[in-house]
Amino acid sequence: MLRQAMTTLFLLRHGLTAHTGRTLYGQTRGIELDHRGRTQAEHLAGRLAPVRPTAVYSSPLERCVQTVEPLASACKLDIVERDALIEMHAGSWTGKPLSRLRRTKAWREVQLHPDGFRFPGGGESFSEARERAIGELAAIAKRHRRGRVVVATHGDIVRVMLADLAGAPLARFQRIVIDTASISVATIDRDGNPRVLLVNDTGDLRRFGPAGGTPAWETPHERSGTDRRSGRNLRG
What we know:
Elements: E1 7-13, E2 23-24, H1 35-48, E3 55-58, H2 62-75, E4 79-81, E5 96-97, H3 98-101, H4 105-112, H5 126-143, E6 148-153, H6 155-165, E7 183-188, E8 194-201
Parallel strand pairs: 1-6, 3-4, 3-6
Antiparallel strand pairs: 1-7, 2-5, 7-8
Helix pairs in contact: 1-2, 5-6
């Protein structure tokens, strides 16, 4: 059974929008889920119901809030919006087509050396994004010592979180694949020690519910989604 002294974090990437994979929209407001994303959100609510979440946190951007609205409604929980969970500030790249950005020299830099990259035009660095995101997770863990907390955010934010929680250098976070509406699971104990239990999952989550089951770290062969290869990491 999962140790109840730990905080269990369910890290979600938001569902699909009409711009996913086409545009680097960063912190742009007003980007909502399309019909596919709304279907994903409903499916997420069903997948997470057996977990019986105790709290729901979200980036303030619409695409994340809408992803967890069906879940929050079903569980009768408020959605707590946190600016620290927002997408990265992409500076002058905001709103640019990904097809054009991939042809630039800077795109190669962000893929190979993200730890030293800052989005041009007053944008954010990945190290800054990691600091605020991990700081927020630590605060959530302290606030919900025995909780099962859903955290809805963005693809790159989930990836830098997971890299940090797993003790991997920021320079290697691009090796992690996070699909839309996927769930990754980690725990943080009372001393702040993390464990990454699941990455990029789209399967059944009942084993993480209050009834528990075999500890997740003892049955790695049963994990689904950890080795998925869906192609490019789409921004958003």
